[in-house]
Amino acid sequence: MATLIGWAIAAAAYYTVGDTRNPEVLRWLALAIFATPLAVFLGWMASRRDEWRLAAACCGALYFFTPFVAARIETILAPEAARQTVGPHTVYFMSVLALHLVGGLGLAWWRGR
Question: Using H for helix, E for strand and C for coil, what is the string for the chain?
Fold first, then answer.
């Protein structure tokens, strides 16, 4: 449940920004990348407090490696968008949202078994 809540917050933060990429909206774009792993961690801590090291490692890895994978997906699917220094990077952010959702649900399924 925490994964879905975090993902909903991240998706809402991304969709409210739209295609603007000025410095005022960077905080919301960072929230789109940070919200889901944080919610997964907090949900994990609420249910299994004694697994805090494993939760921190798994959620930290999800947070740290997802942008690299999403950037690689963008270079494969939309190479012209990946070459832009400033742009909407729609494929990148959609990949981040999808990877966080799948990763968070995968972690919940793994620990719930």
Answer: CHHHHHHHHHHHHHHHHCCCCCHHHHHHHHHHHHHHHHHHHHHHHHHCHHHHHHHHHHHHHHHHHHHHHHHHHHHHHCHHHHCCCCCCCHHHHHHHHHHHHHHHHHHHHHHHC
